[in-house]
What does this fold into?
Amino acid sequence: MNGRVVPGPRVFFLIRAAMVAGVTTFILVAWFLHGRGQPPAVAASSIAPLTTAMYVAVGVAAAVVMALRLRINDAEPAMQRSLSVVSWAVGEFAALFGGVLLFLTGEWRLVLPGALVFAMALAVVRMPSDV
It folds into this structure.
């Protein structure tokens, strides 16, 4: 007899809600700090290598989310639950990377690709329903 407890839908809802709240809070704090009229800590042109790394990371994150989405369909229920959370975390990483660049430069265009990948991860990888 297996003594493991299978997490219910509320657990996955809380995980997703915490991820969304964390990303949203971080981006809003970065926006608020730059909205107070203080100049950006770093000029956007001086972090070109970091910006390139962010675009590459966002592209890789999008590919990983889609690959995991395809893998989830064929996995066992326990693995589906794990892969779902990993997919959301990869999307969250992309959004936070963009948020760091927003925090450093104050430019909104740098946060949008990561935020879109995070939204995509939440949309294409739904909460496991077999619980």
Remarks:
- The CA atoms of residues 17 and 55 lie 25 Å apart.
- Helices lie at 9-35, 48-74, 77-105, 112-124.
